[in-house]
Amino acid sequence: MKMVSFCLLILSISARSSYAGAVSISLGTADPFALLGGSTVTNTGPSTVHGNLGVSPGTAITGFPPGIVTGTIHSSDAVALQAQSDLTNAYVSAAGQPCGVNLTNQDLGGLTLTPGVYCFGSSAQLTGTLTLNAQGDPNAVFLFQVGSTLTTASGSSVVFTNSGEGDSLFWQVGSSATLGTSTVFAGNILALTSITLKTSASIPCGRALARNGAVTMDTNNVSIDTEGCEAGPIAGGTAPEPGSATLLSGGLLLSLCAFRWRSRNLRYTNRL
Predict the structure, then answer these.
(1) CB 45 within 8 A of CB 67
(2) Which CA distances in Å does 31 have to 207, 220, 223, 262?
(3) Residues 2-33, buried b or exposed e (16+ Cβ, 10 A)?
(4) Is-cis flag, bond preceding 57, omega within 30?
(5) Nearest Cα to 184, choosing from 216, 218, 155, 148?
(6) Are 189 and 150 contacting, i.e. CB atoms less than 8 angstroms apart?
(7) Does some domain include residue 261?
(8) Is 99 exposed, middle or buried (0-12, 13-18, 19+ CB in 10 A)?
(9) Of 65, 150, 191, 197, which sits 20 to 30 A from 55 (CA to CA)?
(10) Distance between CA 103 and CA 86 in Å, rounded?
(11) How far apart (Å, rounded) are the C-alpha atoms in residues 117 and 260?
């Protein structure tokens, strides 16, 4: 009986672990927007926005041109209003996910992280390079919950390895986000207040979505649909999908359980 209980426990743990990193966040009608502000969207210099640009409930959009928008501009219209509503829903959904790893007071620079939910009790800082290992899954989801501000130092970057791409990376920011000069960022910033991109900062695959405040640009590139959204290279061949290694380990353990159970029954039969 103890052996049966043990084997069932192994099966249960294996099943739960294979889905432990799953996080799904829908942007709804905010999905086509590369930039969305609550009060204003302002730009200086030859910025490029690949995707829609909008503001609501504010109305002011300045700096386009010289900035270029490949999508549609929505200034306080019904489309922008609905996008803001869906952004709020996405923000609440992201904030409500259970934290997997608490990184409070740790700099993201130099870390290599796998898919899951990471949280900061207050501010988050990126100095240098953050590497996200998608473990062979092009749809691997990463979520960072930031209690207050998100700030990157000049020249910082977010890169993917073993597949993965920015469209499945989310930054839920409790106040405002600031990307430092020449930062190469990735993912969808969902900020409660404002988002500032300093000179030459870029988001090759992702979005800058601010619920209540301004989005401010200065010679930047933000894109939802270019080559920056291609999955990163897989090192050393194809890696297993998330959970595959766990399921394989669980299967081996269950095989061992079955072998031991059979051996035990044979010994009992022989004694008879």
Answers:
(1) yes
(2) 9, 20, 12, 55
(3) eeeeebeebeeebeebbeebebebebebbbbb
(4) yes
(5) 155
(6) yes
(7) no
(8) middle
(9) 150
(10) 28
(11) 38
Q: What element of type H or E holds 13?
A: helix 2-17
Residue 107's identity, in one-letter code, is D
State the pLDDT at residue 69: 98
Assigned domain for 272 exists: no
Query: From edge to edge, which strands make up the β-sheet containing 202-203?
Result: 68-69, 48-50, 221-223, 202-203
Q: Which amino acid is at 36?
A: L
Question: pLDDT confidence of 218, banded at 50, 70, 90?
Answer: very high
Q: Containing domain of residue 50, as a range?
A: 32-229
Strands 68-69, 221-223: pairing kind: unpaired
Digit-coded pLDDT (tens) for 237-261: 333 333 433 333 444 444 444 445 4
**Per-residue pLDDT at 101:** 96
If one compares 5 and 56, the residue with the highest pLDDT of the two is: 56
How far apart CA 265 and CA 263 sit, in angstroms, is: 5
Which residues 6+ apart lie within 8 Å of 242 measured at CB?
Answer: 18, 21, 115, 135, 136, 137, 140
Does residue 102 sit within a domain? yes
Using CB atoms within 10 A of its CB, is residue 238 exposed (0-12), middle (13-18) or buried (19+)? Answer: exposed
Q: Are 191 and 170 in contact (CB under 8 A)?
A: no
Backbone angles phi, psi at 210, to 5 degrees: -110, 130
Question: Largest alpha-carbon pair distance within the chain?
Answer: 91
Number of domains comprising the chain: 1
